[in-house]
Amino acid sequence: MIEKEKEMVKLKEDFLNFYKEDSLYQEGMHPVFGEGSLNTKIILIGEAPGYHESLTGHPFCGAAGKVLDELLESIGIKRKEIYITNLIKLRPPNNREPQREEIKNYGPYLEKQIEIVKPKVICTLGNYSTRYIFEKYGLKDKLLGISKIHGKIFSTSTLFGSVKIMPLYHPAVVTYNPNMKEILKEDFKILKKFK
Ligand code: URA
After folding, report:
1. The pTM of the whole model exceeds 0.90
2. Which domain holds residue 163?
3. Which terminus of the chain has a lower count of CB atoms within 10 Å, N or C?
4. What is the Cα gyration radius of the chain?
């Protein structure tokens, strides 16, 4: 555990040396590296920080974060028991979708975070992190839009052992379409089994 902490601190230091050079960097905006338990079976991967996240430096602390908190609470999991991060670690302007170049720059930090945490389950929230993780972990041929694969479990093997990957709808969908909450709640019930 101490080892994992040391590795994550080192990775964060590397990241903090890089992010000010990145084209997404804007004065006064915080990077959102990720937070939570390094000793967890579950890692949640969002897309990119929004306005509130970049003000505070914490992932999922705005409207989508409220939904995420409710979903986690519905299965009795506390944030501090899992690790939460994003594919992109600086806010894209006006919350636009991540660009290919940004994914290429930030993806390796995410991969290293995963290698340090060594989770048993990787939950990807939304299409972008799902695509990235499926491609990195040899599941490209199984990749479909999130509406087709949400709540399904995909198995893969990694350098640190076998891992389940579960794509989920991004919690922000509930802010546009409240009916989606029930679908997310059903999918989160599956996650509970891995706690
Ligand atoms: N949406 C994300 O994908 N990540 C956050 O941290 C906040 C909103």
Report:
1. yes
2. 3-194
3. N
4. 16
Q: Which amino acid appears at position 32 of this protein? A: V
Distance (Å) from CA 157 to ligand 1 centroid: 27
* Ligand 1 interacting residues, C-beta cut-off 6 A: 32, 46-50, 53, 59-60, 64, 86, 172
Alpha carbons 81 and 17: distance in angstroms, whole number: 28
Compute the distance from residue 85 Cα to the ligand 1 centre, in Å.
8
Q: In this predicted model, what pLDDT tens digit does every residue of 152-189 receive, in sequence order? A: 999 999 999 999 999 999 999 999 999 999 999 999 99
Tally of domains within the chain: 1
- The CATH number of whichever domain residue 169 belongs to comes to 3.40.470.10
CA of 86 to the centre of ligand 1 (A): 7
Bridge partners of 122, per DSSP, are: 43, 165
Q: How far is residue 175's CA from residue 169's CA, in Å, rounded to a whole number?
A: 12
Distance (Å) from CA 89 to ligand 1 centroid: 9
The per-residue pLDDT for range 93-152, each reduced to its tens digit, is 999 999 999 999 999 999 999 999 999 999 999 999 999 999 999 999 999 999 999 999
